[in-house]
Amino acid sequence: MEERVKYLGAFISYIFKQYSKDRCSSIAAELTVTSLLALVPLTAVVFALLAFIPSFQELGQQWQTLIFKYFVPGTGETVQSYINEFVTKARGLSGVGSLMLLVTALLMMQTIDSSFNKIWHVKSNKSFVRTFLVYWAVLTLGPILLGSSLLITSYIQSLPVVSDVVSEHGQWLTLWLPFLMASVAFSIMYYVIPNRKILIAHAISSGVLTATLFEIAKFGFGLFVSSFSTYQIIFGALAAVPLFLIWIYLSWGIILFGAEFCHGLEAFELTLEEKRQHPFIEVVAVLLFLAEFQATGKTLDEEQLKQISKKGKREINIEWMEKLVAKGIAVKTQDQSYCLTKASDSIDLWGIFQVADRRFPSSSQIENAELPEQTKRQLMAFSEEMQRVLSDRLVVSNHQDSPALSHLQVETHR
Asked: What topology in the membrane does the UniProt record assign (predicted)?
C-alpha cells in the first residue's frame, strides 16, 4: 500500500513538473487569444455548413445554446448574444472575407495541433496539403455529426417510452449528459491530435479526468461569478468579456493538463523503467551525495536521504548504500548514518562498476541522467576506455566558495 502511495505521489509530481517544463500556462494563454480570435469565424463556419443541409438549418442555434449553457458557466447567455451579433455581421462579408474567416478557423486548429505535439515532444510529419485536408474534414464532418446527434437525440426523446424516462429523470440526464459529452470529446482529442500512437485506454482515462476537472472548475467558476459582483461595478455591461477570457484560459489549462496526464501515463512508466536500468548512474549519484556531505564533515542518514528525494534532487535507493557498505566503499555508523571510508578521489570507477552489478549505461542513458555535466563527460570517457583502463580514479574538485561537490574529473594512471 505504501509503495502504491509513493508511486501515485511520484506520478502526480511528474505531471506537474512536466506541465511547468512544457510551459503549459503560457501555451494556455496563447490558445486563449487564438480561441478568442477564432471563435466567431469557427461559429460562422459551423452555421454555414449546417445551413447547407435542410434538416440541420435550425440546429445551429440549438447547438450554440447547448454549448454555452453547459460549458460556459455564469456568462454563457451574455457571451452567446455577443457571438450571435458578430456572426450575423460575418454573414454579410464578401467571398474574400468569408475565406479569411475559414483560414482563421483552420489556424486555430493548427495551433491546437502544434501545442499538443509539443507536449508529446514530437513534430508533425504531415505535409501542408494533408494537414489542410484533415482540418477541413474536421470542420465539415464535425458539424454534420453534431447535427446528426442532435436530430437523433430529439427523435429518441420524442418516443413515448423514452419521453417518460426523460421527464422522470430529466435532472439526472442534465447532470451527466454534459459530462459524458465532454469525456468523449476530450478522449477523441487526446487520441487523434498527437502525431504518435496513443493507447485508447490512456486517451479515455485522460478524457474522463479532464471532464471531471472541467466540471469541478465549472462549478467553482459559476460560484465565483454568482457570489462576487465587484467585477460588474468595474466593467459594467462588459463584465462578461473578462470573465469569458478567464474561463477560456482555465479551460485550456485543464485541457493541457489532461494532455500531460495522457503523455505521462506512457512516459512515466518509461522513466521508472529507465531508472531501474541505470544502476551505475544511481551508484554514482549516491557517491556524489556522500562526497558532498564528507566535504562538510557530516554523515548522511536515511532521513536526510528522504529530504533530498522530496526536494527533487534525485530519488536515492537505500539498496545502493548497503551495497557500498558491503563493498567497503562506505560505512554505516552507530547512529544509522552513512559516510565514505576513504577520500572520494581514491574511489576507482571499476569498483563502482562492480557495485552496480557490472552493468554500464549507454551513451544516451548517460546524456539523459540527472548528473553534473562534467560527471557525464567522465562516464562517457570511462565507457570508451573501460576495456583498456581498469584503474581510473574519481577526483572531487570543489568551488572555493562552496564546500558542495560540484565537479568530477577522471585521472588515468598508466
From this structure: Multi-pass membrane protein
